[in-house]
Specification:
Pfam families: DUF934. It comes from Kordiimonas lipolytica. This is DUF934 domain-containing protein. Helix content is 31%, strand content 18%. The longest helix has 14 residues. The chain is globular. The termini are far apart.
Length: 169
Amino acid sequence: MALVNLTGIQAGDFAVLAEDQTPYEAAAVAVPLSRLKDEGDDFFKVAGPVGAVLATDTNYTDLAPLMNKLAFVVIDFPAFGDGRGFSLAVRLRKDLGFKGEIRATGPVIPDQALFLLRAGFDTVEVADTREASFKAALKRFDAFYQTDYTGQVSLAHARHGKDQERKAS
């Protein structure tokens, strides 16, 4: 697997633990959200940087109590056609103010690279054979008709604003 960096951040290096695995002291680990809820603060006392592995159907409000403790989040897409992971990333950024790394895993495709970036993902794990395609897809467009999670002005808003300026003059 290759890790494609979408935002230029320093991507985290962590191990994904199974439900029954114990983290090494101070190790960077990702675990299912259910485990973090069950073990509470005890888990954070043992491990180093901790991340939550989320299914795309996770309710983002379930992460609110953990926002100041999580270093990163991994959203696991079950299929490339499941768009709920995009919405989850946007909600984490906009509503919960999450500043850590958000990583996409699962069968995402190069055509989704810019959508991942615009939804708030920082990194994506892809098959080695798709790494070049993902990187190329990130350069495909530089302007968009929809705003992104940061509120970047869309082409439609920019054009509408120019139309209003012309009418006023």
